[in-house]
Amino acid sequence: MTLSKLRIVITVAILGALFSSAPAKEPDQGQIALSVARLLEQGHYTQTKLGDATSARVLERYLQDLDYSKLFFLESDVAEFRQKYATQLDDEILLGNLKAVYEIYDLYKKRVADRIAWIKKEVPGEFNFASDESIIVDRKELPRPATMAEADTLWRQRLLNELITEKLNKDAIRKPVEAITKRYDQVLRNVNERERVDQTELFLNSLATTYDPHTEYFGKSQQDSFEITMKLSLVGIGAVLKSEEGYARIAELIVGGPAERDGRLKVGDRISGVAQGKDPFVETVDMKLDKVVDKIRGKKGTTVRLQIIPTNDTAGQRKVIDIVRDEVQLKEKAAKAELIERPAADGKVERLGLITLPSFYADMKEKSKTSRSTTRDVLALLTRLQKENIDGLIIDLRRDGGGSLEEAVNLTGLFITEGPVVQYQTVNGGKFVLEDKNPGVAYKGPLIVLTNKFSASASEIFAAALQDYGRAIVVGDSTTFGKGTVQTMIGLDDFMPLLSQGDGAGALKLTIQKFYRVSGGSTQLRGVASDIQLPSLYDSPKVGEVALENPLPYDEIAPCRLDLVNNQRILHIPELRRLSGDRVVTDPEFKYTSEDINRVREQIEKNTLPLNEQARRDMIAEDEVRKKTRTEARAKATQSTDKVFALALDDVDKETLTLAANVKKPAKPKDPEAEDAEEEDPEVDAIRYETLNILSDLIRISKTPRTASASPVK
Question: Is 459 a catalytic residue?
């Protein structure tokens, strides 16, 4: 069914409910739910009807999304909801009735409020820090507490665990009881802040993900954020906000943005009011964060005034900062490159290029020669690297979660002659092929694609195509993520013309296709297997599509005819695998990785932590000894002689490149109140270094007389 036909069906389905209704400023939440349900039934790849079986699964997913750790709802609460709604929820949704959704949320809100009131009475009390008990880390597979007394026991264990954690936190800025009380105050605030529209959004996302893990409902704010992520730009002041104690707090200033250039706004400042131009201030204390963000964003060239409580102010005095909105480029999330010089076996200097690609981004609304594009950016970096006479190239796709399907096809086209890149199958079983139609090749030299378990979707299309053509060697984890589905964004305002004035109904990211390699196999669940596998902490069955709920199955279709004569290279994979294996078994960094893999696997299987302060101190001491031993060993190890030059998109036309060690990294002030710092990168990127070694091997072997006259394998 085409999207236009789907619009007609859904419009007819909801017309009766709309006919007598006057247009409202905000779309009716029940009608949004009805539209989402009909889109899922008729537009999703599986064509699954919203019947009793689906209804029961949606209910369980909603309860899980509300109470993941199974600590707030009692088993009796859930049993009552199952009895009332397990086979009725579908009927209610298709009538546009969200009474059940709000009833469940209201009880959840009460359970949270009651529990946090209990916590605030309990946490200052006496706890046994020499306990012989343990706490279960992940309760997802366990039953909910049957009684309130059983719930109290579980929560006392949780509080003891949190108190021990806070006592052992060397960087703590609050006493343990104060820190925990503050944390749960924020939890309660977050729960109470959710209005009916937010509760609807949460439920509709539960409904959508019941169909598959990549079908999602986006509220208006989430829809805007998704578009910003895809085009790597926004119009605003260039500040990242977080919600804390009722205030929107500055967590980060984006380098080059209006706020960072202005210099008056600081990380840690709290926003108490926002005004448009010369209009009066609107107080934002206790306002939902996404609404504060909406008020700060606006048209380019307009002024927003912020009422600020400075981070270093203890008297609560306000000051006003006026900032002119401008386009903010998210340069840190764009493609970047490096030029690596290292001594070659023949005594000459070898020059290797490395392009890091965080995502497959593109401006989905404006497609012009100046709009953001992964392919355009990579081509600019690649052109400069070739001017530097690189001998080989690595495309680093680790942690690249994908993005634009079109960009995956176009980027592949930089490395192959014209031909098929990916196949896809539609809802109705139609099979289609997306091709690179440009016979030109931007780079013909030795090529490695570096992946890991977080390389997904468009990354997998790119890696799989180059592997199937025999054009590149795939190096990294055993496989990539395993996402072999295609989504489209459908704005719901198009389906509710009589309910909306402007926009506000959000969007549905809907799985409408499955894609397949040109060799015929799907990447769904299986991902792209590496030609040369390297030890990695992330290479776990707990990571990837197989670890998600409701994934679509693996299958295959017929392969495409490929032009291997003009693309396939002799890649020497068995020999390269042997040479790499010899290095890996003696490399201390990979030995550390293997030790960490075994330790993490043991912790996951054990799934408990001791509720004993001294036992936890011993665990920390053991970690510190291990870290110190490794640091000392690294300091004594022979240092790499590689010279690394940084190459950002702003540098492609510069006469000379700058050594990476001399590049001033953007200042990123640390939020003194931050409790959710991003995971630090490993001290030594052994996988990157070994991939460079593999590329050096490939270059050397390819130049030897025994392969110089050989023809590609057909």
Answer: no
